[in-house]
Amino acid sequence: MILDLGIAGGMVWSVETDDFLGKCGLGKNPILTTIYKVLNGGDPILPTPPPATTASPGASSSTAAPATTAPPIGPSAHCPQEGYFPRGQCSAEYYYCQPYFYEWIIYSMSCPAGLVWHQDNCVYPSTSPECY
């Protein structure tokens, strides 16, 4: 409709209704992503979810990560149950553990710029006790 009318932009009244965490399986921010793509001449097809890594719950990681990256995800230490978990204190990086038979599917994710992961949400660092 925006393109049909020749309007130069659009507005979202309630941006918090977008799926910032990608929980619905359509990727992060599907509403804003579709608006951006349509207004910029792109295909309005939604992004695909991030690729999953599968590991055995009893396995441990023996490969050290470079100091500039987040530590590797070790399923036995980091997947005590299904759910979202931070990659570190006051970090924008987090992951989701999903059980799959006798293994875990682990989705690595990150908050938008300027936000950190705290209690199942991306929040401003000033509102997270871990960042004090």
From TrEMBL:
Spell out the GO cellular component terms annotated for this protein, sorted alphabetically and separated by semicolons: extracellular region
* GO terms, molecular function: chitin binding
Domain Chitin-binding type-2, residue spans: 76-132
Q: What is this protein called?
A: Chitinase
Q: Which domain of life is it from?
A: Eukaryota
Show where the GH18 domain sits. Answer: 1-42
Cleaved signal peptide residues: none
